[in-house]
Amino acid sequence: MLSRLGILILVFLILDLIFGHYINRLGVNSFRIKHDYLHHALLPSQNSTARWGRRVYHVNTNSLGCRDKDCRDVDVSRKGPRLLILGDSHVEGVGIAYPNTMAGIVQDSLSREGIDVINGSVVSYSPKLYYLKARYLLNNKNIHVTDLLVMIDISDLQNEIVYENFKPDSSSRAGISYRIRKFLMMNSFIYRHIHIVVKKIKIKSFIKHSEYFRNYAMKHSEKDILELYSSFFNNYEDDQLVADPEFHAVQDWFYIDRYKPLAEKGLQLEMKNISRLKTLCDEKGIRLSLSVHPWRKQVMLRDTSDYYVGQWRKFCGENEINFINLYPAFIDPPVSAVFAKDLFLPQDNHWNEFGNAIVARKILDKLKMPGPR
Question: 288 forms bridges with which residues in the sheet?
Fold first, then answer.
């Protein structure tokens, strides 16, 4: 028989799980989780709230852990045409309600043609994680995909440097560990709040070490962005680079002499991983498209085909990948966009609602999806 102490502990744990099951889902950004194979990911089947700066918005994830219009169960074996989109925070749609995101607009438009859309994009993803996410969905989840769109930007240079030594763990032990963490993050009130306290300690340490983010913290009261970036650099060991403000101004790397070699290294890592993704697509009979979009810096320079774009255009031509240049959509936008004045969120490189609509229009125009095979 259980002792009184054992009964109290059991009752305490049951109450923790009951309370956590309902409360945890109400936490801001509670749908984000560390992942042994993907580095970081979104929890599946979440009806949650997110915050980006001062913007609070709703987030649903589907059964695959991808942001979606609702918490739908994805029929992975569906044999009709399906587009998988892979990108970073721009394409996840930070700060924007899903129907107004690029992916949401594309999904709404293509669904009328009988084409399913999965948005596998996550904050701070880059080509290495795009390849791992595609392999994970295709091989582990056995999802049927006919078309894949990868959306690249200048931040991927830094991301690839940081993720270079990340080793995805596909062992059964890692899988069990992830399932336990996922369950506790979703259902244990105590575990989640211990997790929050630990993250706050890590954020303080990160800010103390990085002059760039220390200055950011002094100017902005929002901590969610700092939380995401501190977790991004969690396992990166080059403290000297992390402490250098110019390392975080990745949009300038090709224009700073001492950072050009690092930019070239990042580009080569990107192309190596996109080559791996292309091989995977060829094996699965999937049509691959790649787009490149600008940050504010590139828009300001008004070069619709800069070095970065040129390198990707050449790469895609050599590897038979459909290439989409999104720079003109921002630098020479249609007349309707002029009245919006800006296609970005205030003091941010992410698209506002109008910017998302402009990108969606361009993607729908240039994406080659001839329909079922």
Answer: 148
Q: Residue 207 and residue 290: Cα distance in Å, rounded?
A: 35
Residue 43 in contact with residue 33, Cβ under 8 Å? Answer: yes
pLDDT tens-digit series, residues 337-361:
666 678 999 889 999 999 999 999 9
CA distance 108 to 183: 32
DSSP symbols for 161-226: HHHTT-----SHHHHHHHHHHHHHHHH-HHHHHHHHHHHHHHHHHHHHH-HHHHHHHHH----HHH
Phi, psi dihedral angles at 115 (to 5 degrees) = -105, 125
* From 125-139, 216-230, 325-339, the region with the lowest mean pLDDT: 216-230
Domains plus CATH for the chain? 27-176+230-366 (3.40.50.1110)
DSSP of 252-267: GGGGSGGGHHHHHHHH
How do 67-68 and 55-61 pair as beta strands?
antiparallel
Please tell me the pTM assigned to this model.
Answer: 0.89
Specify the DSSP class assigned to residue 45. S
